[in-house]
Design brief:
There is one protein chain. By secondary structure, the protein is an alpha/beta fold. The protein has one domain: Maf protein (Alpha-Beta Complex), CATH 3.90.950. Helix content is 28%, strand content 21%. It has five helices and six strands. The chain has a six-stranded mixed sheet with strand order 2-1-3-4-5-6. Helix 1 links the parallel strand 1 and strand 2. The two termini are 21 Å apart. The mean pLDDT is 92.
Length: 211
């Protein structure tokens, strides 16, 4: 049986960009989202072998520490020509200083080394695995993807992470050039384009109800 999400929820992240997106998505459902950083919760070591496992590790740790339901996202960029890299290591490629300009440059260098210069050789997709964990060990999990092509040089200053080099399928602007509503806003205001928005819509179907 699925369980409804109500009241207050810990978002198990120290990333302000992810927190802002989740607060906007959860707001219409009357759910108050507070971050793990606000509560002073430590980030657990992400030892999972895939996105779902890492999301579960973060959600369970936050739920146990806070004593209320916790929500976690594990997401990243999967590049076909790089055999799936950076994948679950997407954030780590940016280093402790969150240097995603450097991470994007590294991806481009590797693509050039593999002669991946045409659109068909620069296919990639974002993955978002969402997990909600309760202190009593109940868990809800979903996953979604957003497919597209990597462009160079990066375009746009909106969004975060690898957004400026990711051109979603069927669009002429990168995630970095789109407004927040365009990228992850849900219909009817937005298109629900991002991997996180698509995963959230799956989660909403089973766990969220408008007040």
């Amino acid at each position: 049986m699925h369980r409804a999400i109500t009241g207050k929820l810990v978002v198990a992240t120290h990333n302000p960009g992810k927190l802002a997106e989740m607060q906007e998505l959860l707001g219409p459902y009357g759910v108050e989202a507070i971050s793990a950083a606000e509560l002073g919760l430590l980030e657990p070591e992400e030892t999972g072998r895939d996105f779902r496992q890492n999301a579960r590790i973060k959600a369970v740790a936050a739920a146990k520490a806070a004593g209320i339901p916790a929500f976690a996202d594990d997401s990243g960029l999967v590049v076909d020509a790089l055999d799936g890299a950076p994948g679950i290591y997407s954030a780590r490629w940016a280093g402790p200083n969150k240097d995603f300009t450097g991470a994007m440059t590294r991806i481009e260098r590797l693509l050039q080394e593999r002669a991946a210069t045409t659109a068909d050789r620069r296919r990639a997709h974002f993955v978002s695995a969402l997990c909600v964990a309760w202190p009593d060990d109940h868990i809800e999990e979903v996953e979604a993807h957003a497919h597209g092509t990597l462009i160079w040089p990066p375009r746009g200053t909106a969004g975060f992470g690898y957004d400026p080099m990711f051109l979603p399928e069927g669009h002429r602007r990168t995630f970095g050039e789109m407004t927040r509503i365009e990228k992850h806003g849900l219909p009817p205001l937005g298109l629900g384009l991002s991997h996180r928005a698509r995963a959230f819509m799956k989660l909403a179907e089973i766990c969220l109800h408008e007040p």
